[in-house]
Amino acid sequence: MDAIFIQILNGLDKGAAYALIALGLTLVFGTLGIVNFAHGALFMLGAFCAVTFQKLVTISAKVRDEGVTAFVAYKEQPYLESWFGDTGRIIIDYSVPLSIMLAIPFMLLVGYVMERGLIKHFYKRPHAEQILVTFGLAIVIQEIIKAYFGANPIPQPAPDILAGSANVGSWVGLGDNLVYPWWRLIYLCFSGLIIFAVFAFLQFTTYGMVVRAGMRDRETVGLLGINIERRFTVVFAIAAVVAGVAGVMYTPILPPDYHLGMEFLVLSFVVVVVGGMGSLGGAVMAGFLLGIVQSFASMNEVKEIFPGIDQIILYLVAVVILLVLPRGLLGRAGVMDD
């Protein structure tokens, strides 16, 4: 029972990352009609916002090491720690969550520039052309990251207070030996908050209502005198922010490298297709469902019976679901039927 519960948590944790990326992908496809293969690169850019912020706050100077008395020795001390003492140490310790303050404006800018500079020229072009140009853009971004940050993963520490494990077994009555990393629980809660915020924005705000109407019938909304293209630009920027902050918070779980975007992109597109192209609820549902399936397929007991099953299980599940439900779990008629 303990192993099953841990695998469910692992699946929800991984599914949360899939769901956040797929949510942005679906939001962009549903509003702009764009199949954006550069969305995984936005997840990676968010992760490297955390890396950049951590490098900035840990810029150091050599100072005399008072702990060594036998000879003159020096040590590296961050400027923040020298200037602000304990407050500086707290900022450094919480660099990952604080880097969200850098990621949000940066990802808004990246999303705006991408949509205005490139994406808008492909609104009415075939999906194959959209895939080619956005995939090319993703490769360019990947190579830029590789040139500036190198090819090796860069570990990002979680805050010290959240570096250990929570005794989740005592919470659910399964004993004191069942533990789970605090940061993974934080990421799961954070993902739920972001998903709720996106749905609340679309459902309960006037801006969101216009966007949803534009997703259904862009021409009619335009005839009402509403500048729907400007609103869709904002939606693209919001999707970029969602991917970016998801990448920021995932860095203590998986050290970012320049391959990170591509690794999540392919799986997230599988999630989008399984959930149903253009369905936000389907993307979230499929993200968590496939995350749990992949988690159970990664168990040693399962891999002993079916070697390599963890590498293909998502695609097998996708094939089965699409054979039964050709439009996905919550797909709508008329979406990509051409």
Structure write-up:
The protein is mostly helical. The protein has one domain (2-58, 65-324). It contains 16 helices and 4 strands. The N and C termini lie far apart (47 Å). The mean pLDDT is 84.
Write the layout of secondary structure elements.
Blueprint: H1 2-32, H2 39-57, E1 60-64, E2 74-78, H3 79-84, H4 86-93, H5 95-98, H6 100-117, H7 127-149, E3 165-166, H8 168-172, E4 180-181, H9 182-204, H10 206-216, H11 218-223, H12 228-250, H13 260-275, H14 280-297, H15 300-305, H16 309-324
Antiparallel strand pairs: 1-2, 3-4
Helix pairs in contact: 1-9, 1-12, 1-13, 1-14, 2-6, 2-7, 2-12, 2-13, 6-12, 9-10, 9-12, 10-12, 13-14, 13-16, 14-16
Features:
about 350 residues, mainly alpha, two-stranded antiparallel ribbon, two-stranded antiparallel sheet, 16 helices, 4 strands, about 70% helix
